[in-house]
Specification:
five-stranded antiparallel beta sheet, 9 helices, 12% strand
């Protein structure tokens, strides 16, 4: 079960910003951060496999659980460690690069979960836009289902200039995205910590509302190479 101690450890480790401190408290990291996130992965695995049997659901760091180390090879950071942790469910990235995923993240100030792309390829975004403009039944079915729910909102960077001025406003929200994901964000940590709230079951129930979106994105992935 996720507890306040997970956030406390992430915060302390972030501010210590010390390899020596982390190594001295590595067992705490395993117990307070990795273990509860692994339990969350295990709890969500039956649902995830029902959505997509090809999803990777191994409850390990670098499989479904994020690393705590920042990658200093590609960017300069002020800190060595992240003050957030997340799990993600997606197909194997080697065989299916840049594919959509379901995810849950936790930070000291908020937590959230959703479905979509961390980074969508230009090819799949072009395919998504074509399916929208063509009014593909696969898009309209997903669009109708998405608009019936009120938990997740559409997110992702958008172009500053409207690239589809002739399209209806509701479709423009999707068409002008550079990247695309649907997300729920909360600061109600009682939902996260309380055993009575059964956070994994809540997430699974709400993830059901995103299945049409995930299936549509998989369809776009298949169509992009045709």
């Amino acid at each position: 079960m996720i507890r306040q101690e997970l956030i406390d450890f992430l915060t302390e480790n972030y501010w210590q910003n010390s390899r020596e401190w982390f190594q001295a408290h590595k067992e705490e990291y395993r117990q307070k951060v990795v273990s509860p996130m692994a339990e969350l992965v295990v709890a969500l695995t039956p649902f995830m496999k029902s959505v997509d049997p090809l999803m990777v659901c191994e409850p390990k760091v670098n499989k479904t659980i994020s690393r705590i180390y920042r990658d200093l090879r590609y960017a300069k950071y002020d800190t060595l460690y992240r003050n957030e942790v997340w799990i993600s469910f997606r197909r194997d990235h080697k065989e299916f690069p840049l594919y959509p995923q379901f995810y849950v993240y936790i930070t000291p100030v908020e937590f959230g979960y959703g479905c979509g792309y961390y980074l969508a390829s230009p090819e799949v975004m072009r395919t998504i836009r074509s399916l929208i403009v063509e009014r593909s039944p696969r898009f309209t079915e997903m669009f109708t289902a998405f608009n019936k729910q009120d938990i997740f909102t559409l997110q992702g960077d958008a172009y500053k200039k409207d690239r589809f001025p002739e399209e209806p406003a509701a479709y423009k929200t999707w068409l002008n995205k550079k990247n695309l994901f649907a997300e729920y964000v909360s600061r109600d940590f009682d939902r996260l910590f309380s055993p009575e709230m059964d956070f994994p079951s809540q997430v699974a129930r709400e993830f059901e509302k995103l299945i049409p979106l995930y299936q549509f994105l998989l369809y776009a992935e298949e169509k992009k190479d045709l």
